[in-house]
Amino acid sequence: MIDLGDLQKNLVKKYAEGNLGSVYLALYPEQTDPKKWGQELLAQVTRTSDHPDILWVERGEDEKDYKVESPGILALLKFLNYRAYELKKKFIMINDAHLMSVIVSNKLLKVFEELPENFCLFLFSPQDQGLLPTVESRAIKILLPKDLSSEDYDAPLQEFASAQELIANLKKSEHPEHDEKRFIEDSLIKTLKSANYKECSDALENLKHFETSSDFNNSKLSRLSLFFI
To answer: How far apart are CA 165 and CA 98, in angstroms?
Structure first.
């Protein structure tokens, strides 16, 4: 299994040199958003977000798994009939590949085996989920890195004595919007878990005022002070 510190740059280099593989099985840890990672990769190939040479295959809202008649699978099969419009490769990105049924996997097996030279296909699957052995054996396995911003987001929150202290910390933070949201969420969760009805009601009212004051461009210090009352 390939586990590179700078996986995206490595793949982009292979693309530029014409050495990109045909089928990749991209396994990802829980902290990583595979679609975000895929979009970042493609952004280094083209600045056009909705490029005709790129197809994202995703399940419909009411689909628990992929079926032969799924719109995403039908779009994939149609997409294979056309040559690349502009890019060196046409990209097919299959989200939740572990949710392809056995029938779908077997139907696509020939596609994976005989993918045209000007195509590159990514199968995104959680690290702890497997695909059919016959599918896995036809793909180059890569391990997506953990999303460090998500790790920071999951780290224990620091306690703050005042809104001024919180504001000072947010100014130093690499992810101020995440940290601010987490602070508010954490404050509400603690109140809802341990407080009585009145305190819960007051906390939700503070959240309502926080949202309203944002609309009126109140200072951040003024808005966050509500959570220290």
So the answer is: 45
Report residue 48 as tokens: 């056009």
In what side-by-side order are the strands of the sheet with 23-28? 54-57, 90-94, 119-126, 23-28, 140-143
d(CA 104, CA 208): 47
User: Rounded to whole angstroms, how far apart are CA atoms 32 and 18?
Assistant: 28
CA proximity to 126, closest of 25, 37, 5: 25
Query: Alpha helix (H) ranges present in the chain?
Result: 7-17, 34-43, 71-79, 102-113, 133-136, 148-154, 163-172, 176-194, 197-215, 220-224
220 close to 167: Cβ distance less than 8 angstroms: yes
CB-based contacts of 46, cutoff 8 Å, min separation 6: 53, 54, 86, 87
Tokens (6 digits) for 205: 């009212």
Per residue in 16-58, pLDDT (tens digit) is 999 999 999 999 988 889 999 999 999 999 988 899 999 999 9
Assign 191 to helix, strand or coil: helix
* Residue 67 structure tokens: 């079926």
